[in-house]
Specification:
Peptide deformylase, alpha+beta, iron, about 25% helix, 3 helices, metal ion binding, Peptide Deformylase
Length: about 170
Amino acid sequence: MVLEVLEYPNKKLFERSVEVDKFDTELGEFLDDMYDTMIFKGGIGLAAIQVGRPIRALIINLVDENDTQNKDDLLEIINPKFIKKDGEQLYQEGCLSVPGYYEDVKRAANVVVEYQDRTGKVCTLEADGLLAVALQHENDHLDGHLFIERIGFNKRKKFDKEYKKKPKRQSL
């Protein structure tokens, strides 16, 4: 089922999400709905808070070398904890909650994340490149932050000015 994606400046997007402690069929169904929503909206990542549920869960499904998203490559990451962040990279980011806006953001180049899967099993993931960026971007959502908070004062001022000019979209 496709869920509604909250858009900036919705106040819910700035809430800190709570840890997941119940790994059941309801969580699995919610993760499936998040996947349907992310694919429908054309995203490569989605945090639970973006669809109105403040739990520490996110999904990422990068495109492969054939420019397709293979569900077998889907990462479901619950209660993520960054064990290591190092290096630096600049990557142009966008966000389903800030549609139509893209800007360069500085992030760690290499990360190690400990998390739980949909069954509660503890896993570790090492990532670099776009996957490292996506993990940090989606985790920011869980902490109540958007990528536009990381773009620098002048770019943020320009964004705020341009955003106010945009016509408001109706919710579904």
